[in-house]
Amino acid sequence: MNKIVWLMGPSGSGKDSLLGALRQQENNQLLVAHRYITRAADAGCENHIALSEKEFTQRQRQGLFALCWQAHHQRYGVGIELDIWLDSGFDVVVNGSRQHLSQARARYGKALVPICLHVSTDVLRQRLEARGRETALQIEQRLQRAALYAPNLDECLILNNDDSLDESVSSFIHLIY
């Protein structure tokens, strides 16, 4: 089995930008999984597959998710196509959740490569302000949550995402290969 990269980081750390850039790379070995989420297709920046609560529950009952979890009043799933891709020799990147890292580890064991995005407070504040989705109070709350995030070296590889997107992509590729 190949690698499943479980990418984690606080809101605004650049996960969606990094995943989008990875999708543009000419790497025939690496695929980026789409998540199935119970939120509108046009909500946020993530390239996801929008499902209603009913659709999500139906797919979950039918065993169509390799992993699924609930967070931020939404339900998230990664389809069983993930297992097919791994068995076919591909490495797969998933926009993961640190609260559900243990679930991913239980299913994928040593094939799982957890990577934590780290962004300095100043850069994170600038990114959150620039995207314009949150109020000043919400930005402060996200910064406080991010401060609690502090990646653990025993838990994951650390990828600093303060610099350019090109540098982050290069660092990401270097970490997993």
TrEMBL record:
<keyword id="KW-0067">ATP-binding</keyword>
<dbReference type="GO" id="GO:0005524">
    <property type="term" value="F:ATP binding"/>
</dbReference>
<dbReference type="Pfam" id="PF13238">
    <property type="entry name" value="AAA_18"/>
</dbReference>
<keyword id="KW-0418">Kinase</keyword>
<dbReference type="GO" id="GO:0005829">
    <property type="term" value="C:cytosol"/>
</dbReference>
<dbReference type="GO" id="GO:0006015">
    <property type="term" value="P:5-phosphoribose 1-diphosphate biosynthetic process"/>
</dbReference>
<dbReference type="GO" id="GO:0033863">
    <property type="term" value="F:ribose 1,5-bisphosphate phosphokinase activity"/>
</dbReference>
<dbReference type="GO" id="GO:0019634">
    <property type="term" value="P:organic phosphonate metabolic process"/>
</dbReference>
<feature type="domain" description="Guanylate kinase/L-type calcium channel beta subunit">
    <location>
        <begin position="1"/>
        <end position="176"/>
    </location>
</feature>
<comment type="similarity">
    <text>Belongs to the ribose 1,5-bisphosphokinase family.</text>
</comment>
<comment type="function">
    <text>Catalyzes the phosphorylation of ribose 1,5-bisphosphate to 5-phospho-D-ribosyl alpha-1-diphosphate (PRPP).</text>
</comment>
<keyword id="KW-0808">Transferase</keyword>
<dbReference type="InterPro" id="IPR008145">
    <property type="entry name" value="GK/Ca_channel_bsu"/>
</dbReference>
<keyword id="KW-0547">Nucleotide-binding</keyword>
<dbReference type="InterPro" id="IPR012699">
    <property type="entry name" value="PhnN"/>
</dbReference>
<comment type="pathway">
    <text>Metabolic intermediate biosynthesis; 5-phospho-alpha-D-ribose 1-diphosphate biosynthesis; 5-phospho-alpha-D-ribose 1-diphosphate from D-ribose 5-phosphate (route II): step 3/3.</text>
</comment>
<dbReference type="InterPro" id="IPR027417">
    <property type="entry name" value="P-loop_NTPase"/>
</dbReference>
<protein>
    <recommendedName>
        <fullName>Ribose 1,5-bisphosphate phosphokinase PhnN</fullName>
        <ecNumber>2.7.4.23</ecNumber>
    </recommendedName>
</protein>
<feature type="binding site">
    <location>
        <begin position="9"/>
        <end position="16"/>
    </location>
    <ligand>
        <name>ATP</name>
    </ligand>
</feature>
